[in-house]
Amino acid sequence: MSQGRTTQSVRPHEEPGLSITDFLSDGGFVHLCVTLSGLLGAPVRLLDAGGREILAGDEAVAPWRFADPGPDPAVLASERAFSVPMRAAGRVIGWVHVGKSPATEGPLAGEIEQAIALMVDIADQVCDRELELRARLRELSATQRLSALLAAARSEDDVLGIALDSALDLLGLSAGSLVLFDDREPSAGLAPQERDVEHRVSRNLSEDWLSNPLPLSVDREFDRRALAGEVVAVCDLQRDPRVQLKSRAKAEGLACALHAGMIFDGRPLGVIRLYGRTVREFSAAEERVLRTIAHQASVAIGQARLLRLQQEERRLQRQLLLAGDVQRRMLPRRAPTSDRLDLGASWEPSLELSGDFFDFIELDRATRAEGARRIGIVVGDVVGKGVAAALLMSHVRASLLAHVSRDASPGAVLAAVNDDLCRDSLPNEFVTLWYGVVDPLSLEMVHASAGHEPPLLMRSQGEADVGQLGSGVVELRSGGGMLAGVLPGQSFVEDRVPLRASDTVAVYTDGMTDARDFDGQRYGRKRLAASIEATLRATPDISAGALVREAVWGVRRFAGLAQMPDDQTIVVLRVKP
Questions:
Q1: pLDDT score of 561
Q2: Cα–Cα distances in Å, from 380 out to 242, 480, 567?
Q3: Topology of domain 12-135, CATH
Q4: Topology at the third CATH level for domain 153-307
Q5: What is the reported pLDDT for 305?
Q6: What are phi and psi of 439, to 5 degrees?
Q7: Domain residues of the chain, as ranges?
Q8: How many CB atoms lie within 10 A of CB 405?
Q9: Rounded to two decimals, what is the model's pTM?
């Protein structure tokens, strides 16, 4: 918490010496009084607020001058027919003194006095507009200076300190603080006590005042009104019924207060609280100055926070991209080679990280030569997307590889992975898994499923079977099994499928079939099967990799530019002719 000293400044338009002379730029009004003196045959004197007479000056030196010596008050009193006060901002700044003469005491005396009063009234309006213009120019100058200072600020605390010091200096107040609120929704109410604020910057206020949790006003009315967009002015803290800390304010030496809310994009950031040591009225121009400062500070703080969030988002995005790159490297870079089998795969995450995965596992490394080894094919889909799904996918893959090294049986591997997941994951974290082992020598495939989409088998001779989607297309529905990670101790039934030359097996995740077009129609399993079957009929000797690309392209053609609702993975196994 920083403390400092702010120099008390005096508001130019409320200086004790404010006078008509502050508005006499060319001496025109002085010459007007001289002309009236000739017309009325009586002295028409222009006096300042202190009673000094103002005379026309030498144009070469100055347009006006003070009479030296000044008029004798007794002479003024004896010669006066009437006098009209001149005002600016409601304060007397001078007088038009009209002496006695036949004109000013004759039958037209009333009309003459009224005419001079109208002349003075016009002059008063000019002075008021001049004051308003000067105030606007000061505001503009202050705004430009504050903008430059805020632009050069290096931290949020710098912004707050500059805003508070500028407000105190421009408004001639001697103490203040700038408090920030806890991050909240704009509609959230204020707590009865000030435990939700942080005094980030303060000037000339004691620790006892700053640490007091009780708000200055009853029911925190000042803060509530300030956050509603008002500038709250309290001329006398001891007499205002809204103030509940009168004794504390008196002990602190505070007599008046001015509060303004800091709001950015509809969200309350904090309140600027300014205090004076003497009772004081605040003008509309002063309230406008504080509102401008509060607005600029709010924008500067809001933009700084947005920039910080953007930087954090970019940092997280870089981390996600790096994590996605690591995840891609965990997938097989190439499929195992075999004289009888051809493998291809595609993996497309819908976000930076994916819950889908696939793998090719070469078995029998110690007993068979390369090309004759059995090949394990794994396809899995973790429920959900993003970081959590990717982390769970890594755990599943590690568990599966560990158990495959001890037992290649698909049913046993899935049972072991299921038990690991039930032990290490939450009840709402589970996975669909399909694991099949293909022998290139016997062309037999043994597979088991843990709640996964049934693979598609495209027979080269179009055999009919239960679950058939089209001529030559068979769904490989195994004995079935529950999703992995739901209940421990589950068993997973294995099925054995004899394969023949030119047979094709497609294993996929539901991201392929759940894709939708702009009308909301689902791609579905039948369209996927029809797409693969049509490609095989058109190009019977197509490679597994090319068939995968055609299958993915078919989904893309259907969905168009619509966003993928889920990760998409497909693995194709072809038995060579």
A1: 77
A2: 66, 15, 11
A3: Beta-Lactamase (3.30.450)
A4: Beta-Lactamase (3.30.450)
A5: 73
A6: -100, 115
A7: 12-135, 153-307, 331-575
A8: 11
A9: 0.55
